[in-house]
Amino acid sequence: MSLTRASQAEPHDDDSDLRSFGYEPQLDRSMGLFSSLSISISCMCITAGIFTVFAYSLGSVGPAFIWTWPIVAIGQIIVALVLADLAGRIPLSGYAFQWTSRLVNSHYGWFTGWAGLMAFTPGFTGLNLGLSPILLSRLGIEINVTTIMITTILLVLSQLAINMLGVRIASRINNIAAYTAELGLSIVLTLILLVVGFITNPVQGVGFLTTSTPGDNGFLVAFLLSGLLGIWVLTGFEGAADLAEETQGARRNVPKAVVTSLILAVVIGFFMIVALTINIRDLGAVTSAPVPIIAVLEGALGTTGALIFEVVAMVALYAGGLANMAAASRLIFSLSRDRMLPASGSLAAVSRSTGSPTGALLVAAGFAITLVVIGSTVATAALPLIVGMASVGYYAVYALTILAAILAARRGLLRAKSSFDLGPRAQLIRAVALVWSILVLGVLTIPTANQQTALAAGAFFLLAAIWYAFVLRGRLQRGAAGVPGTAAGDVASPVLAEPI
After folding, report:
1. Residue 89: what pLDDT?
2. Which CATH superfamily includes the segment(s) 29-478?
3. pTM
């Protein structure tokens, strides 16, 4: 199999393109650019993510946390450029696993794919955990560890049922949620909050946005920890790449979806957190409220306005969970198709009637439920732990993928142009993206406050190492596993010599 041949396949013939990589079409290729973009938007969950982590970041350092957002945004845009370039070269489900396996080898690809599982699965679990207390509050049910755990499990099961019906139905639901709630209504409500906070009923001056309350950690550590909001929300934009085999014109549409979704999230998200922060009447009362963001909304918009914003957030949270579950299942499917996981035959099975990877979806849901139960019974705070794990997974994927691209480019594997080409400064862009990803991983794991996250992520990778050492390494060396075209774990593709 030649990556050059794959790159030169007819752009309108997605199935021939897929076959040139060594796979027969199995999934239902029914999504266009509109749906691909909505997947990435929902995987990021701008409104939903802000609802989930706003209180944590505000409590870490105070209103000054909003300035971590543009810092994270710059780093993430650079990362997105690298990923979009690879998405245009290798439009396959399993995205980073497939990319790194073909640029380095399947041994390397295994750990990248495993990091991806730690990103998407805790990712949609965290979104459902964020949705549960908001939903319970509106239903008048007591909010405690048990009710949150049960509600989260029920949300996971409902998302599983929808995804099992097929990508056509799931993507339609996701399209409606992404474009009406995540973009349309969230923009309108943000504008209303900005008008209230700055013009019609200002309760704080502009200087309030630089106020800090770092506590015992000191300003720098607190400021870095408060960056978790941007660090988590501005991830998942590559979700469209994980559903590339279900996207029409994947080489062109997926890179566009990756970059466009992130830029939209950066702009909308920044104005939203500014709008929320400037409307804080009493900082102490808000940070001590059961759901701080609701206290801000009720103070600025009244009960009815707060309810509307909550409904938008709940829809966005649910759609985000739906999209991230789909992405997680496609990664499991891709790994299993290449015999990288236990019970790969069952996990790679695709329903003939719906075109969905049934076994992979069941495992994604089962793992999420297990994570909720363990997180709720072991961790002092399940949400920061699970959100932190997902963030570590995302940035580990970014670092491993970018490093693979740098190594491949040095060997001359990326000389041909991608449909989203980085030009002559490609290696510089990759180097900056790698440094940024490593720095964020340090923020997510080194501070004392993040020790539980670091230990949980370490345990997750330990499982991958055990499976690799005792089973998978032998499979790869025998050629019984790995992406098509590899022999004993060698690079899957020859040099890319000609531009497409």
Report:
1. 93
2. Amino acid/polyamine transporter I (1.20.1740.10)
3. 0.88
